[in-house]
Write a structure and sequence with these properties.
This is Lasso peptide biosynthesis B2 protein. The protein is of the alpha+beta class. The protein has 5 helices and 4 strands; from the N terminus they run H-H-H-H-H-E-E-E-E. The longest helix is centred in the first third of the chain and has 23 residues.
């Protein structure tokens, strides 16, 4: 047996259960993104979608004090999304990451930027007012609904 397979098989059963639950939730989120408005999907996930034009601090995400359990939940979530058949785009990572940390002070934000005449969008997760994002959000303008939250 190859080394990565042996390492994977040594994971705690709790991690496997979380991965299966995350995979099921990722499938539901994928369906929800296709048939529901984003604010409704966020409410169903018990996730705070914040479109107020502000953004959290862009600093080292290691400053966020996550418990070992929270770190594992976020890690499992993002690992599952890296594999087929899941679409691990920024929006899915933000929604499912926020769901994994839904009992913390969190926010899912969406921003846009215009590059060479093309509009690009990006979603990210914030925890305790700090951006948690593997892709970076520096050049994106945060969306606002114009309606107080």
């Amino acid at each position: 047996m190859s080394r990565p397979v042996r390492t994977l098989l040594r994971r705690h059963p709790r991690t496997w259960v979380r991965a299966v639950r995350t995979a099921a939730l990722a499938a539901a989120v994928e369906l929800g993104l296709r048939v529901l408005p984003l604010p409704r999907l966020a409410r169903l996930l018990r996730v705070r979608l914040v479109l107020d034009g502000t953004a959290g601090r862009r600093t080292d995400p290691r400053l966020i004090r996550l418990t070992e359990d929270e770190r594992e939940r976020l890690d499992v979530t993002w690992r599952v999304l890296r594999h087929r058949p899941f679409n691990g785009t920024c929006l899915r990572r933000a929604l499912l990451g926020a769901h994994a940390l839904r009992y913390r002070d969190h926010a899912v934000r969406i921003g846009v930027q215009k590059v060479a005449g093309e509009v690009k969008a990006h979603a990210w997760l914030e925890v305790d007012g700090i951006v948690v994002d593997p892709d970076g959000v520096e050049s994106f303008r945060t969306l606002t609904t114009g309606v107080p939250a």
